[in-house]
Write a structure and sequence with these properties.
- The chain contains 7 helices and 7 strands.
- Helix content is about 30%, strand content about 20%.
- The protein is flat.
- The chain is α+β, with helices and mostly antiparallel strands and about 180 residues long.
- The N and C termini lie far apart (about 45 Å).
- The protein folds into 2 domains: about 120 residues, Roll (CBS-domain); about 45 residues, no CATH class.
- The longest helix has 11 residues.
- It has a 3-stranded mixed β-sheet with strand order 1-2-3. A two-stranded antiparallel sheet has the order 4-5.
Amino acid sequence: MNVMAEVAACSVAEVMGTELYTLTPDTVVASAKRLAFDNGIDHLLVLDNGTLTGIVCKGDLRAAARNALVADCMSSPVLCIGPDTTLEEAAQIMFDQHVSCLPVVTGAFLVGIITRAALATVGIGPTAETEAEGAACSACGAEGPEHKVRRDPRAAGIPLCTSCLGRTSPTQRGPAD
């Protein structure tokens, strides 16, 4: 078995993040933006009375009005996986469902989160040469083969055109949202 096949067969529990940032549905978007920015995270989990009811990412927060509630911009229901799911299976689910993270649960307990960025750090996910068929650039909205939209691991598998990929770095931080 080659090294990449061994890594792909590892469980999500070996790579998932366990430092979880949570909100309630009645949290104001401006507060959620601040939490995400201050902690350098892209995904916030939404709990209502201890139950996972939604997830919100930076893109959702950018599109929402500052005084809106998280409940208005969160994605729900949330697609979850178990800690024994392989990294390859997690990457395939993210790709098929067009999501950038998956909460990890054991029974009714939230135990972690796996992101495309975490998968990319271990070499799992689309390669730089993988075309994002039919996808639009997440940054500028460009579509079509002339823009060469790709899912590049340097951008955590997010579809970007060659122009935006050249301007974007996972380590860059923009102004506060």
